[in-house]
Amino acid sequence: MASKFPGMENEILEVFPKLDEIPPGIAIKFEEMIRCFLQTKSKNPTLKQFRVYKHLREVYDDEGKLVCFFKTSRDAKKEAAVYILDHPLSGHRSGSSELIGFGGATPTVFIRTQDASGCLVSFVENDGVVGDHKPLVMINTLPQEIIKLSIFHLRFGNADCHDRNTVTKIDDQRVHRLTPVDHEECFTVTYAMRRLWWTVRKEAKEAYTDEVVGYVQGLDVDVDIAFLKRCGWEVPREVSVPYKIFTHFLKKGVEFKLTADHMAVLVQNIHKSTAFNLSNMLGDMTLEDEIFVQKSHEKIEARLRQYSERFL
């Protein structure tokens, strides 16, 4: 740590993920963000607030360019975990220096100093959030932009997927490129997702491509959790258990050829046949975690098979 941040090593108490446990390209990006944070903080200890967002503070480089935000949140480690688990199509994040993964999450690193704790979130140029460009059904974007969001939100069990938690950048062809933000409500222990804005899009009702199916089927929660531990986080059960449930639900949903819209209805627990709602597919929550997960996996597979036979 000292060699990476000369003269600032005493400031840093903790970084997650550990920089020596992640691919070099990502480590370099995080080092830049941390260095800029420490330098900006040395000049202005309180950091400048970003617009009306009291929880976001601006971090600049030596030339005055906005590099990232410092975000105070009790769930800051969850946000960093979501980023490093957003694997690119080319393979597991642990072996890839690609900065942007399949879901499009921006580089995010947790940092704790003597007087601050939160995450640094890389700034992305944007034209606001999708909620600024209503009606949502008319936004000109590519099918894969909607598909990646659906996989990203479902996989991480994001309890708050409203239209202001997706940033958009309009390219030269007037096409919206979408980036999910604000991941602190991922891994929800309520097993109830809300406000999945992309369900209004026709793409959510279309079959997943073979490429997407292959990506989903290649996900491995146990490998992911082991990776998080190597990176310095003893993953709490409040994260690991929901992550196992949501990932299994997604994998089985894709296996049984459910669309994003089908799964969105079930994870929001609003299907008229309530037995198919996710909250009713779970095992007895008083059981030990391992048994609860196993029983839930069995019920999820059985119910989704029944759902596919009945409704598809």
From TrEMBL:
Keywords: ATP-binding, Kinase, Nucleotide-binding, Transferase. One of its GO terms (molecular function) is ATP binding. Pfam families: PI3_PI4_kinase. Coiled coil: none annotated. It is an enzyme of class 2 (transferase). InterPro entries: P4KG1-8 (IPR044571), PI3/4_kinase_cat_dom (IPR000403). Residues 118-258 form the PI3K/PI4K catalytic domain. It comes from the Eukaryota. Its EC number is 2.7.1.67. Belongs to the PI3/PI4-kinase family. Type II PI4K subfamily. This is 1-phosphatidylinositol 4-kinase. It comes from Brassica campestris (Field mustard).
